[in-house]
Each structure stands twice: as C-alpha cells, then as structure tokens.
## 1
Amino acid sequence: MLLAVDIGNSAIKFGVFDGQRLIHKIFRPHEKRFTFRRINCESW
C-alpha cells in the first residue's frame, strides 16, 4: 500500500495505491477562507 499526496495551489489530492493499481482517491479543493490551523483541526 502507498499513500500519494499532491498539494497544489488550488486543491489537495490523495491517492491510495496497491502496487500499480489506484484503489481510492480523494480530492479536496482549497478554500481561501481556511487557514492551515483550521484545516488541521477539522481533519482530526
């Protein structure tokens, strides 16, 4: 299993791979009103 994370200017994308096969992906758009602290607290 491998977790890949792509942190871009407009979105954060996650992908879970089993070997070379993508088994799950998550897309979270970036919202300017969120600060790093707020996103971090919401994730937990």
## 2
Amino acid sequence: MMIAESPPTEVWAWAKPPDMPYRGPKPARVSHSSRHSRYFRRRLATVAGGGVAWNVADRDDRTLHLHTRYSMLPDDDAQAVERLSAAYQRIVGELSKMVVGQRRTIEQLLIAMFARGHCLLVGVPGLAKTLLIRTLADSLTLDFNRIQFTPDLMPADITGTEVIRENRATGDRDYRFVPGPVFANVILADEINRTPPKTQAALLEAMQEYQVTAGGKRHALPDPFFVLATQNPLELEGTYPLPEAQLDRFMFHVLVDYPSEAEELEIVKRTTADLHPRPDRTLDGPGIAELTRIVRRIPIADHVARFALRLARRTRHNQPDAAPFIQQYVMWGAGPRASQYLVLGGKARAALQGRHYVSLDDIRAVAPPVLRHRIRTNFTADSEGVTVEALIEQLLETTPADGNDEAERAGLENVFRSADTR
C-alpha cells in the first residue's frame, strides 16, 4: 500500500458514506462529475476544513482519485500565497546581489520572518551574517537598527529611557520617553552573547509582547518587528551564554556554514572589484504584515500536525514516548513552543514555495533550526561526543509519520473496501 501526500489541487476523501454503497465500475477512478459528486463536494468541505489530504493507491495501483477545483484556501488567500511565493523569489534575487551562496540560511531566515519569528544566527566571523541581515532590511521598506552588544551596554540603551523636558514658556517640567534603537522593524542584535544577562533580558518583553514598558507606560513596537541576533561560537571568554528563557524566544537557531570553493571564488572576485550593487525594494511593512497573516491561514492536515507534535514530545527524556537514545543523552528537551514553531515554520515554507498545504517534508526541513537550541545534552553525550545535530537527525529517522492512529487506518480500509464493492 502506498500513501503519498496530494497535490494542492486535489483533495482525497476517506471513504464512501455509510448509507451510500458504491455501485460504480471496479476501476475506482471517481471524477467530480460522478453520480456521487454531491456527497464528495460536501465531504470535501469537511476534509479541507479539517486539513486531511491523502492520495491512496491500492494493491493494483488503481488510485481512488477525486479531482476537484475546490481550494483549501479562499480565492483571495490562494492568490495571496502566489504573491508571497513571487515576493520570496524576488527577495532571494535581491539578496543574491550582495550575498553569495547561503541559500539554506536565506530560506530559513525568510521562513522565520514570514512566520513572525525571531532568528539566532550562529557562525564564525566573516560569513556575511551581518551583511545578510542588513541587505534583507534594505530589500524591504523597513526601518533597520543595529545594536552592537558590549559588556557595558545597559537595558535603557536598548529600550529607551525617560528624560526631563522643560517647557520654556511656562517653566513646567515633565518626563518624555525617548525611544531606544529597539523601535525599528528589523533589529540586528550583533554578538548578543557579549552583554550581561540583565541587558539581554531587555529584549524579552520586546520579542514576546512586541512592546516596551518604561516609566509604568507601555510603548508599542513597530509592526512588523523582527529580532535577528548573531553569535560567535568560537570565543567564549568574556561572553554570557543566553539563558534558556531567551533562547526559547527565538524561533530558529540558524547555523551559518562556510561557503563552497566555487562560492568563495565568487566572493573574492566580487569583493576585490569596483562593484557597488544595491538591492531593490520589494515589499513594504503593510505588505509584509498582510503576507504573514496569510501564512497562519494555510491549512495543515491532522497527521502532519501530529508528526510535528510527536517530534517535539520525543525530545523529552522523562516522557513515556521518548526514544531510547533521547533518554540516554538528553538532559531536557523542547517545550510547547517547539511544536508551535514546527507547524508555523512548515506553513511558511509551504507558502513560500507556492503550496496551499503543509507536507511532512516541510516539518522535517524546519525541525533542525527549531530544535537545536531547545535540546540540552547531558554529560554522557558530551563525554561520548554525541551532538545535538546527530540526535535531531536520528530523531527524524526514527519518528514515524503515521503514528498509531487507528482512525486513519480504519479510514484507509474503508476506501479500499468501497473500491471493491459492487
């Protein structure tokens, strides 16, 4: 039996209605114009609303097809997904003017941005982390501020502070809030681990609540708002590792790797020539805010959502469904935010590729950046050289996609039974 995920223009019904025996021909290809199209249209609305989309083939490779133009999204949202995919291609093209290679890093960065998440980019110096973030802000009509984190940086230097203002006409004095550099659409928190924890914590409220509280008053941040932080993994002297509470606020932990030989040659040729490329503007703030709302309206099948949930839950060593290697090597695993970000990342990846549904491959693609900073290994793993990356790879290989859902199995049997019934 073969189970595959359906294309975006096809939705697959589980079975015939219990009170309607199928009396069609044995080759079970059922079209939209069949005698049972009324039932199938009604069932499609339920299936699409619930996010169930399957392609089921029986032993003889006869497929129970149900071709339909019923879209999982309203027409306006479907067109918005196409605009989002086109905008993604334009943004990648503009970024390629300034940054050579790093396609996976760019994809993960844009997935997090359109899912309204924050990113932590980790890599050795000279891999264009700062250039990539600045070019992204330049290619969008967004306000950009860079905060260089240093040991003497104070929280008020980030969020802003209140100053005394005097009215020269009346002589009265009052307090006026002066916004800090955090009041921008895109914030580059450069070398965030070089500042003390109290200053790092100043970003917590901004990242979670999209506001800053000063002098007992709340000040809303611009919309959209993204924090893109960089971190150097080599130099640990004089640094302050981010606390777990703040690490969990980052949707993605993106590893920026070395370029290939061909890419490095292109970097050398570009940077040593008299070239000054400039990225063109592609989207503005309201347009990005609209497209980020479309991402959340992408439907997801129950079995795909359960797969994301299963991935996150299996990282917890004290859970009964934890894998044996997790119980052996993990001190603690991912929390509920991991499940949320797996689903959101899958939705954003599907939308950026122009699809109206989330596949299992979308969840697998975003699992490493979502999980790598939410899994803490124990002493046994450190002593044996077992890394978080190896654990995530093994987790993806051993986590079943179908689970133990008896309802799904019964549904498949009903589909096959209806094909053989005369």
